[in-house]
Design goal:
Blueprint lengths: L6 H8 L5 H31 L19
């Protein structure tokens, strides 16, 4: 997102054709898209893979004794 983050960014910035504001704008858009993709993946396939909608028996204070897996 900034010129010092990677060598290719530093090389592109050193040409003088790019401003920091240009790089920050594109970086913010890419960061936002990445967050949206990760959240979408977590709520779709992540919930099924990691059983996110089920409360584990060991953390349920109201579960009867001996109901742990």
């Amino acid at each position: 997102m900034l010129p010092v983050s990677t060598p290719p960014n530093a090389i592109a910035f050193s040409t003088g054709r790019l401003r920091i504001a240009d790089m920050v704008g594109v970086g913010l858009v890419l960061n936002a898209l990445g967050i949206l993709v990760l959240l979408g993946a977590l709520h779709t396939s992540g919930a099924a893979l990691f059983d996110l909608y089920e409360l584990p028996a060991w953390s349920n204070a109201t579960a009867p004794p001996g109901s742990e897996r």
